[in-house]
Amino acid sequence: MSRIPSKAEILDWISANPTHTSKRDIAKAFGIKGADRIDLKRILKELEAEGHLQKRKKTYRDPDQLPPVTVLQVKAPNEDGDLYGRPLEWHGEGVEPIILILPKASDPALGEGDKILAKLQGVPDQDHNYEARLIRRIGTSVKRVLGIFRAGSEGGRIVPIDKAASTEWTVAPDAAKDARDGELVEAEQAGPKGRMGLPRARIVERLGDPAAPKAVSLIAIHQHGIPDHFPDKVVAEADAAKPMGLKGREDLRDLPLVTIDPADARDHDDACFAHADDDPKNPGGHVIWVAIADVAAYVRPGSALDREARKRGNSSYFPDRVVPMLPDRLSGDLCSLHEGVPRACIAVRMQVDAEGNKLGHKFVRGLMRSAASLNYAEVQEAQDGSPNEKTAPLLEDVIKPLFAAYKALTKARAEREPLDLDLPERKIVLDDDGHVTSVAFRDRLDAHKLIEEFMILANVAAAETLIQKRSPLLFRVHEEPAPERLEALRETARAAGLNLAKGQVLQTRHLNALLNHAAGTDDAELINISTLRSMQQAYYNPENFGHFGLALRNYAHFTSPIRRYADLIVHRSLISAHGWGSDGLTEEEIERLEETATHISDTERRSMIAERDTTDRYLASYLSERVGNEFEGRISGIARFGAFVKLDETGADGLVPVRSIGREFFHFDPQAGTLTGSDTGLTLAIGQRVTVRLTQAAPVTGGLELELLALENAPMPSGGGQRGRRSPAGRTVKRKAAKSKHKTAKVKRKVERKRRK
């Protein structure tokens, strides 16, 4: 027979679990089964009659508590920029609850007066009672736009900087706020559409010259709502922090740990050291130390620093600046492992065998002192036989042992076979004034790979330790490709004459085999891009679904708590699991892990989009002086309105509008990813080589417009495929198009068979 809970116990449960308040949820929570459910139903009826509970559909709630899903009206932002909501349904007694709105990066911008349907989560012991997540907006405030002001005789107009926005806005003379022609402004809707059918706007903020040095990243920061100003309370809290001493820590200051970073790095949050293992049971093995700045010692749960770090989720990186997750007092000073300075750290000692397999590991909370701050290039040069004054004294005892350990790890990596994509990363070089001087591809040195392998191993160790100790954490999750994306990749491979086996459990080695077969062929880039597009996006989750791309079962982010909130959560979990202090993971944080995971996954995507937009704008600025020039490239995407082309020289993406290709109608097949001309049969498909002319470059939006000159080395016909033309060049294009079309024919036939089914 089940124990029937008291009325007080039921009320406590409902208060603590506002989203699990059905009779079934309550019965499950207290283990009530069978006929005992009748007694539970009786108690709930009594509580309802006594006014302690209200029944809403099939759930119960405390009348002094807000329902888990409710309608809010958005209030004006406070001095820190935080949004709060007022519940439109409040029937409780006493002071109206305070509700903090936590928007996701993908949510629409909210403003004062908006009405939203939101999911609420109670948060005890905070300066607010609830935190709200947007479900949908049901009433809008005034719409805002970021754009370039163009002065006119009767006020002016605003040209949006967003590439996806085509509508301009009119501005009355008394709503221009003295903005100058060409100035970047933020405006809000001022009423219904005015003259010429354009919406009317009033300027609310002037943001300066969009062409000014280093203004490009500011546009992205502003456009995507990335917080770039620390509230005074956060700065004051950071400024009050003091260096940590040895008390309660293991002394690691005699270990010659070194940091290896880019030459222009301002902060150093990870250090490493390796040496040959002297354990006779591990011949040819290595000991690898990885030490990470102890950010958790300074950023305590629930503090102003913690709330701001969680809000930002991560640092955002642009060619000319970094928008950090933490103030510079921490990120650039106390939590940066500067050379020769004692710094608090959490370190892991890992033992690997001669084949790079991890035999064991141990975490410690320590105090370290970096023996040297090195950069990738000088470390690589030292290993290659050209040490400089700084690396020469470290060559034998520090640098060579690091590479020896790395060589062992490469054996384990080769056995594991993580996904091995060949997609060079672009590097935009700016001068002191913020102008682009060159666009190149970043070097991939063994020194880079060494640090990556060490960090991956440390991340695995963190995940394994916390799993073993049953301590909650956030895993870095990367799931395998969705079936439909995998099928699209398989068809792309077939069209290129390659094969991706079917009917087996997909592993990264299968994809690597495809990539290796494509290597060195004209289709190599196509297969790499298509493989990347087939991948799911990695995210954070308190449940462990593994990391497909790295071919790892257990993986968490531990190595960058300065710039990722997920890593800070892992550090706190390690502190709690080892009993290192009172600054570990709190019960409240554990309850909010799923919500935190969703939020920081969103902020990560927000930063990625902002960084990509900034790169696009810098590339457009760089290429704006070369309008009219011809470029080689490859079709990287197909849409109904045209073909996207990735230029070989810079990696920039531009659009060939379908209207510019010819006067014939082009049929868009989204399944096959093709555009096919109705008259000539000309087929455009992903992966085709093209020659294009740059016709327009818009630095403000980052847009490039291209003209198609040749497809697969066949020149386009004069007149662009006009109806009735059958010139020799046109026939050449048709023959070339037929050959190209053959590559995608199998795809189209398969799609057609599916449609018939």
Automatic annotation (TrEMBL):
UniProt-annotated stretches for the region Disordered: 714-757
Gene3D superfamilies for this protein: Nucleic acid-binding proteins
SUPFAM superfamilies assigned: Nucleic acid-binding proteins (SSF50249)
SMART domains: RNB, S1
Pfam family, one: RNB
Residue ranges occupied by any S1 motif domain in the UniProt entry: 628-709
Primary site of residence: cytoplasm
InterPro entries: CSD2, NA-bd_OB-fold, RNase_II/R, RNase_II/R_CS, RNase_II/RNase_R, RNase_R, RNR_Ribonuclease, S1_domain
Keyword Hydrolase (UniProt): yes
Coiled-coil spans in chain: none
Catalytic activity, reaction form: Exonucleolytic cleavage in the 3'- to 5'-direction to yield nucleoside 5'-phosphates
Keyword terms, alphabetized: Cytoplasm, Exonuclease, Hydrolase, Nuclease, RNA-binding
Family to which the UniProt record says this protein belongs: Belongs to the RNR ribonuclease family. RNase R subfamily.
Role this protein plays: 3'-5' exoribonuclease that releases 5'-nucleoside monophosphates and is involved in maturation of structured RNAs.
NCBIfam families linked to this entry: 3_prime_RNase (TIGR00358), RNase_R (TIGR02063)
Protein name, as recorded: Ribonuclease R
Species the sequence originates in: Leisingera caerulea
Organism ancestry: Bacteria, Pseudomonadati, Pseudomonadota, Alphaproteobacteria, Rhodobacterales
